[in-house]
Amino acid sequence: MKRLGIMGGTFNPPHLGHLEAARHAHEELGLERVLFIPTNVPAHKPLPQGSASAVQRCDMVRLMLENEPWAELSTMEIERGGVSYTVDTLRALEHAAEERFLIVGTDMLLTLEKWRKYREICRLAVFAVVARKEDDRAALETHAARLRELCDADIRLIHCPALPLSSTELRETGALEGKVPPAVARYIYANRLYE
């Protein structure tokens, strides 16, 4: 395996923004596959009240990926238990591929220096960054230049239509149509999630 994409997150719920970001990174960077890795316990903010369980979040990711042969669910962070740190996941995947590409959105890149061992993360993976909003791109370029200087980070901005979807908004509004795959919407309704 030469090039592996890694997309982490709570996926609470997973949505088409996650899928499109990963698809564009996969195509643009020639990734052989992309692992979607649901967080066990997030490091930076707790899962909100009424969240889906770890099993339910994994089920939803599995449903989202069922017609995507280039993508697969990895439960490694759930199985590891405790707080999920990106650096631990990248260490565990260090020999899984020659190059590892961490697919992140705007907010992730802009807060990178708050992450545990962010300099080691920069050594272990290339960043594939997808803008959440069109007007994020200038801030991303500026911050990417700073991180390249600070810790020799390899950062690639992915050419992808901006994806203004957010799991928080989907949980709060319940407006799922056209924002999550139909199988995921059916699962949410059947399990009465986020009510």
Task: Please explain how this structure is put together.
This protein is of the alpha/beta class and 195 residues long. The protein is built from nine helices and six strands, in the order βαβαβααβααβαβαα. It has helices at residues 16-29, 54-64, 76-80, 86-92, 106-110, 118-124, 137-151, 167-173, 182-190; strands spanning 3-9, 33-38, 71-73, 99-105, 126-130, 155-157. The protein has a six-stranded parallel sheet with strand order 3-2-1-4-5-6, with helices on both faces. β1 (3-9), α1 (16-29) and β2 (33-38) form a beta-alpha-beta unit. α4 (86-92) packs parallel to α6. The longest helix is centred in the last third of the chain and has 15 residues, at 137-151. The chain is globular. The termini are far apart. The model has no long low-confidence stretch (mean pLDDT 93).
Pick out its properties.
single chain, 195 residues, alpha/beta, six-stranded parallel beta sheet, 9 helices, 6 strands, 41% helix
